[in-house]
Amino acid sequence: MDSVIRTAKDALQAKASAFLSAKYSLCQDDEGIDLRNNYLKLLEVICAAEEMGTNLGRQSPLVNAGYAIRTSTMIKQLLSFTKYHRSDDGICAPLNIVVLGAGFDVMGLAALLSLENIHVIEIDLPPIVAAKKAILSNPKIRKILATNQKETVTTDDQEHLWRLTYASGSSYTLISGDLQELPTLKETLSALPVLNNQSSTLVLSELVLAYIPPEHSDALLQWLCSNFLHNSPGSALVLYEPIGKTSVDVHGCLAVSVTQGYKYPQTYFDRFPAKLERRRSPQKSTTYD
What we know:
The protein is an alpha/beta fold. The chain has 10 helices and 7 strands. Residues 245-262 and 283-289 have low confidence and may be disordered.
């Protein structure tokens, strides 16, 4: 499982490289300023935390662009979802955000600090959850999580979950579980009061289902849709996953449409096919991007 934790840490540090070192723009929407600022602040503090174990390294331009696109895409969808449920007077009904295979990403935490009436539920393997709990217990990080809300935060540490609950009613829950073990996951999620209150739910998956055999990912999505999305008006499922043939016209894909105005999507999608072909070639390449 060490490789799983290392992969999750590498992904977070690659995002930090894209936004903190390469300084790609994240969420140019005026309405997303708070979420953007909180995301970048948490990203910097967590990557610098002793619990991460390694220093931030600068990634290649292509890797920076790829992580900038995927992160901007997911945050854009999160903001669109919350905006849809906001009334004309700015009040938002309670919402659930479920992140599959969240790893060490801080999008859920940034949403918790930036939005009202929100319940964030992140699901990942037990080693990832245990490591993330340790990171979030860092005094500097707990101070950010507390002072941004300016209210009392209580911690609930159980066998399969770890929860932060705010006096305002918002909450952040880490679920320890394997997405391939649906019976156990069903039991844990079904016991969460926030997922049984008919609130609208957004389910997010960012390059997670690609690592799960189709029969397991199909069963998981079917259950989520029939039990949470179908029964809650205004719910949504957003997948950032490799779906379909690799020859599909990438210029018409979601990632491009939601990052219009940025300079890097066009560059990334123009260069990636050539890089992929070089990877497939039996000859070693001396060119590094």
